[in-house]
Design brief:
Helices cover 39% and strands 19% of the residues. The chain is of the alpha+beta class. It is globular, with a radius of gyration of 21 Å. The structure holds flavin-adenine dinucleotide.
């Protein structure tokens, strides 16, 4: 490994767990790998919060025309909120509307959403371009591999980015422990993770497009879909993402990775 300060290092194993703009991934995918823009901007905040229409302990998701707003009670009187709005990348990447601009975007929305924006200190309000990358395979060669967002950056609609990184770590540890050498351990880890993480990247992208539906027809389809689907069916659809199928019993051991 060569570092920007000129230092060099050698190791038996390199795990690129260096996030969305991974330098290790760049070695594999090349410097020009494009990021895929989601087509919407995201605003986020954490604030002290209470509102007569917001039940403590709850999570609320409000749906609009190419826009959404989420409120999540994170305990001790604090709220995490996020808002999304469809916007071409040229505008979202240079957006500098500040708190007034966010309030303006949510004009006419329920007061519990607007109140969350109003009480957030401007310095705690973040603006993000939401992006992912197309699925990359393979993740490594020789003693090098990728993990987490470096391997499979995804949009946030299923809330699975960190979850997948933790699953990667569990599977990687299992494979390294039982493989005859590092490269074979890494290739076993990668093979065990490709299908699940590819499904997650692709499903998150398509759910995200559906959620951001804009225009009367697309919006009615989206709203009807969520309104009329039974709770049981909805939970059933989310269950695969929220259940870690693991790699079953590893050869030669009685250890399972699916707990
Ligand atoms: C708005 C938003 C909401 C989200 N919600 C959820 C959710 O509800 N559930 C969920 O599971 N996930 C969620 N995620 C996704 C989650 O945050 C990421 O998937 C997760 O942080 C990825 O973890 P990681 O360790 O792979 O990468 P990162 O968290 O990005 O960590 C990478 C680390 O590498 C360091 N690094 C980078 N480059 C170098 C370098 N050259 N040298 C040294 N160090 C370097 C960085 O400083 C950083 O500490 C959300 C993401 C966003 C943006």
């Amino acid at each position: 490994m060569r570092f920007t300060d000129g230092a060099r290092a050698e190791a038996d194993l390199l795990v690129g767990a260096d996030g969305f703009n991974s330098a290790v991934r760049r070695q594999l995918a090349g410097p020009d790998e494009p990021a895929h823009d989601s087509g919407y901007i995201a605003w986020l905040g954490i604030t002290e919060y209470s509102h007569p229409r917001f039940t403590p302990g709850s999570v609320v998701h409000l749906w609009g025309d190419g826009m959404r707003f989420g409120l999540v009670d994170i305990g001790r009187g604090r709220l995490y909120w996020w808002g999304t709005k469809n916007m071409p990348f040229e505008r979202s990447s240079t957006w500098d509307g500040g708190k007034a601009g966010v309030l303006d975007a949510y004009s006419g929305w329920p007061d519990e959403a607007r109140e969350a924006i109003r009480v957030t200190p401007p310095a705690d309000l973040l603006t993000l371009n939401t992006r992912d990358r197309s699925f990359l395979q393979p993740w490594g060669t020789g003693p090098v591999t990728l993990l987490g967002d470096a391997a499979h950056p995804m949009l946030t609609s299923l809330g699975q980015g960190s979850a997948m990184a933790m699953e990667d770590a569990a599977v990687l540890a299992q494979h390294l422990r039982h493989a005859p050498d590092v490269p074979r351990g890494l290739r076993g880890y990668e093979a065990a993770r490709y299908d699940r993480t590819r499904t997650m990247v692709e499903a998150t992208r398509s759910i995200s497009e559906f959620e951001q539906s804009q225009g009367p027809v697309r919006r009615r389809v989206r709203d009807g879909y969520f309104r009329w689907m039974s709770h049981r069916k909805l939970v059933g659809k989310l269950e695969p993402a929220l259940t870690f199928p693991g790699a079953g019993i590893l050869p030669g051991t009685d250890e399972r990775t699916d707990r």
